[in-house]
Design goal:
Layout lengths: L1 H39 L10 E11 L3 E16 L4 E15 L2 E9 L6 E9 L6 E8 L2 E6 L7 H19 L5
Antiparallel strand pairs: 1-2, 2-3, 3-4, 4-5, 5-6, 6-7
């Protein structure tokens, strides 16, 4: 009888945790859609749009040929009332690059309040194969869901790369912090 009660208690706990993760994922998806809509709008940062910074890199390497690396930073505008300076914080960073014939696309979405990574989309086009799309959902700096599940082991690498991208974006948006 004790084993049965323990089993049901564990099942209820696991079900509650799964529902909590799905609720968080739904909130992240909503934020993602809102940020993408604002990023695509023609509004200026003063009208509710986002500040946009684009960095383009080009190189030509032996054996792999020309490589492009395009990074776009979509930033939230706010005015610091103490200094009367306009400042920006990166909310969405996109990166598209190629290595030889392979094309890669990455998106990093940061929470608007804490500026921690909450979502990453990765799309890899490997030659003529179908694209490989991976989605990573984060909460408080920890991976809560990976789609497909087989990509769960890549969460730490994605988080580390997102931190580096955010640091680069912060340096571009406000170099006085560094």
């Amino acid at each position: 009888m004790r084993k049965l009660i323990l089993f049901f208690a564990v099942m209820v706990s696991v079900t509650a945790m799964a529902q909590n993760v799905e609720q968080q994922v739904q909130k992240i998806r909503k934020v993602y859609q809102e940020v993408k809509a604002r990023a695509a709008s023609d509004l200026s940062p003063y009208e509710g749009g986002m500040g946009i910074v684009t960095v383009k890199g080009k190189a030509n390497y032996c054996a792999t040929g020309p490589q492009d690396n395009d990074i776009t930073i979509y930033a939230e505008h706010h005015q610091d009332m103490d200094d009367y300076f306009n400042t920006y914080d990166a909310v969405l960073i996109t990166q598209s690059f190629n290595i030889a014939a392979r094309k890669y696309y990455r998106e990093y979405l940061y929470d608007i309040k804490t500026f921690k990574l909450i979502f990453s989309l990765q799309n890899d086009e490997c030659n003529s194969d179908a694209p490989i799309v991976k989605r990573f959902y984060f909460s408080n700096g920890k991976l809560i869901k990976a789609d497909p599940k087989s990509a769960k082991g890549e969460g730490a690498k994605v988080l580390e790369h997102a931190k580096n991208m955010k640091k680069m974006a912060d340096m571009l948006l406000d170099g006085s912090k560094y």
